[in-house]
Amino acid sequence: MASHQRQQALPVINIALLGDKDPAARALVVQDIARACLDHGCFQVINHGVSKIVMDGALEAASEFFDMSTGYKEVHASDDIRSPVRYDTTSRDGISKSRSFLKHYANPLDDWINLWPMQPATYREKMGTYSVEIQSLSVQLMGAIVQGLGLGSMYLHDKLGEGLQFVALNNYPQGSSLAGDTVGLAPHSDYGFITILLQSSPGLEVMHHDDHAWTPVPAIPGALHVHLGDHLEVLSNGRLRSLMHRAILNTDEARISIASIHGVAMDENVECAEELVDEGHPKMYRESSFRDFLDFLPTNVKTYRRFVQTLKIDTAAYKDEERIGSATLRHS
Ligand code: OGA
Ligand code: NI
Fold first, then answer.
1. N- or C-end of the chain: fewer Cβ atoms within 10 A?
2. In b/e form, how buried is each residue of 169-189, taking b as 16+ CB within 10 angstroms?
């Protein structure tokens, strides 16, 4: 419904000057990114340094993989959500409605690439090149985001460089124009700090905070979409919120998207940055790792809950405890 769908322009940010030696030039880009994170929870980037050839190559490799025989693709299927490479067509995660996907780890590339599909023949090369460039872009973007939070641009820098990169290739069938909006991937927020997404055609929709309206994300040629994940909400102690999003089926064509999720290493805990915790802003989330997220996933199939919701410290109870604690002290 038109009344329900707010066609709000989402920010498109030119990040060419993010790497500039002049701190003032960089600061302007950091400011744009900080604003977009607060106001929208997402933004698209242009002049990001990942070439069209590399982006097209990744989409081709994904498309050629999905065109392989079911038998071949199922070689990569696994019931185990911990498997580093996983092809699936079912809704083990509770949110897949109409998609098949291939998910695999990608950073550091040498640890994982030998587990990736060998067919199509150019898969490893094309997806590998794309993954490495996106990983490096993610570190750059995180540098800007943490700087925007007042944590300094090098905050977590090394841990992000060595961190987790989880690449999900999504394959959606063409939707029927008679059926109305058909959901391919149900509403959810992503694990990790940020997701960088490339889509072959429109279908991604975002819902900011408690907005109750879906905004379509346009597929701008050459641009990459970036949105905030659960662990950024934790790190920022709730100053930034992870973004709810979904994918609807494109009625013009089958659609492919490549989502790259970025975080710190598998067993590394993420907690609220100390600098963002004070009397006025008590710690709102408990710490957790990617492994905790994987443990949580199988419990989340029937009714979907955002992972970050399960991490929330009940601050009212927390304050009560403090009050009781200090009262006890006074009376003893
Ligand atoms: C995802 C995701 C959206 C899309 O893979 O987590 O949200 O457009 N994908 O496919
Ligand atoms: Ni997602």
1. C
2. bbbbeebeeeeeebbbbebbb
Q: Is 0.90 surpassed by the pTM of this model?
A: yes
Of 99, 103, 66, nearest to 84 by C-alpha is 103
Ligand 1 in contact with 247 (CB < 6 A)?
yes
What is d(CA 218, CA 216) in angstroms, rounded to the nearest whole number?
6
Cβ-contact 164, 262 below 8 angstroms = yes
Tokens coding 123: 């898969």
**Cβ-Cβ contacts under 8 Å for 213 (sequence gap 6 or more):** 4, 5, 6, 207
Decide the pairing of beta strands 244-248 and 204-207: antiparallel
Question: pLDDT: is 330 or 22 the higher one?
Answer: 22
pLDDT in tens, 33-84: 999 999 999 999 999 999 999 999 999 999 999 999 999 999 999 888 889 9
Residue nearest to atom 5 of ligand 1 (CA): 259
CB 293 within 8 A of CB 211: no
For tokens 């067993």, name the residue. 267
